[in-house]
Amino acid sequence: MNLASEGSQDPGFLLFASLIMIASGILIIIQAVKRLHDINMSGWNLLISFIPIANIIFGLYVMIKDGTPGSNKYGEDPKGRQSIHAA
Q: Model-level pTM?
């Protein structure tokens, strides 16, 4: 017997799994927007991830790009670094 296939037919299990997936998806989106704000980009740029091929390039850029030192229009630097232009 396969426990995964038996459990997947249970409505309670399906509801629980769906709630976990929705909660995880929301948390992933929140963290992605925070990262985009860290590199001084709008959260709307996250929509690029739905474009094939461009999503790979954009994802690599977001992972490699260092955050904006100092403050930007989205708030303070989470690492606490100061901008070169700051007095």
A: 0.73
Give the Å distances, CA to CA, from 40 to 25, 46, 60, 62, 83. Answer: 23, 13, 16, 11, 13
Express each pLDDT in 6-36 by its tens digit.
556 788 888 999 999 999 999 999 999 999 9
- Per the CB < 8 A criterion, the answer to whether 43 and 33 are in contact is yes
Angle between helical axes of 11-38 and 54-64 (0-180°, round to 10): 60
| 66 contacts 35 by C-beta, under 8 angstroms | no
CA 49/CA 32 separation, integer angstroms: 11
Q: What is the pLDDT of residues 45-64, one digit of tens each?
A: 999 999 999 999 999 999 99
What whole-number distance in Å separates Cα of residue 85 and Cα of residue 82? 8
Tokens of 29: 């989106």
**Distance from C-alpha of 7 to C-alpha of 78, rounded to nearest angstrom:** 42
